[in-house]
Fold:
Amino acid sequence: MAVWQSTLEERFGFASLRPLQEQIVEQVMAGGNALVVMPTGSGKSLCYQLPALCLPGEGITLVFSPLIALMEDQVAALKAKGIRAEYINSTLRKPERERRYAALAAGEYDLIYATPERMLKEEFVAALAARPGGLEGAIKLLAIDEAHCITKWGHDLRPAYRRVGAFRKQLGCPTTITLTATATRLVRADILRTLDLEESDMPLFSAPLDRPNLRLEMQDVWDDGDKIAAVTKIASNLAGTGIVYFALIKDLERMATDIRRALPGRRVMLYHGKLPPERKKAVYDEFIAAPPEAGLLLIATNAFGMGVDKADIRFIIHAQVPGSVEAYYQEVGRAGRDGKPSRCVLLYNQDDLAIQQGFLEWQNPPLDLLLRVAHAIEANPHADFDIEELTRDIHAKRRHDPRIEYAVIALKDMGVVEPTHVEGRYRRTAKVFDATELDVAEMHAKKQRDLERLLEVMKLVRSEDLAPFVLEYFDL
Structure:
């Protein structure tokens, strides 16, 4: 019997692993690295959670995850199984963070979850270094979740992730597993390059992306009335839970009223990034708990995304085109995780491509705007600020400029500002903005990569069959 078998049964309640899971677990248990590409819902997390409890040695398992909500949910699930797990992120107030740092140093955890930005915090590094064996002996397994965030070729780059290779060396190069549901050949190569590993050092373990129970469709629509009619028809003909994705909050809110009116027998809820945190949590909790007979329909932006753990989503509708093939695949991948038939319908209106082109411009603020935003923050008399306040400082009359929010995100990545524990607010740090730190050539290259990614979406909607296009795109 495998050394992990009893732990699998007693802690996780499974009699056996799926074949690919078993291959990955055996690789990690033997001290080997693994690059894991598996569709949403195929059990990626267990591939590091099980070894975390079974690998010999005093070190712990460190899990880097980009999503706070996801790590909190996973830690809660592990604690419910009696596993010593915890997370440390920016949502914690200082006294609680310090308490968890002390517990980490004292060896009270088997798994510690953190956002990648945490590796840049002296207190976090000091807590690891205080463990037996020092920093190089603190971690026996490093798990990098949503690993596509590592790479400039991915659709969701997190700059802090780019430093994970250097941090891994500080830790003494522990056994490392990277996991993602979406990784093209370029993404996979860049993950290895960032970690300074060869393919022979970190072999690929991939599950087939083809999911026969998902019916991927594309339907032309000409205006908002067409979209509402299409959503109404699909939701009327299909029982169970569904999601309708929009790209823009204003369009979501405007059309949600008509969709509600057209579907009097369904519970319709909204979710987007501008909702208060307590409302987001209430909607999320109700969605996850909703039984199929409730017929719940969630109208959402991509703010409702990774980490959604619900097996019985029967249909997903994209009312506006997504920004990348990766985003599309991740979102449709939330349907039919129970293996039963599910429909995924992309409603295509050529005008909607302009929405994604607008996002592309917002997400790549020019150098002159970065300078103006940095100077406005330095001149602001308050210790903290929000985006609306900053926009008023920069534009005397104009109250809305989405580029400013992305400029602040860029400054956050540079360490010029940091988020507060209050959602949407930032504080100035001691670091002064230095324009020479900006790689202007890389800024232009990123925008070009974003354009190329959007071009692939255009190819997707023009393809005769969506599923073969997606399979060829990821080249696994």
Summary: The longest helix spans residues 440-462. The chain has 18 helices and 16 strands. Residues 214-356+453-474 form a domain with the Rossmann fold fold (CATH 3.40.50.300). The mean pLDDT is 91.
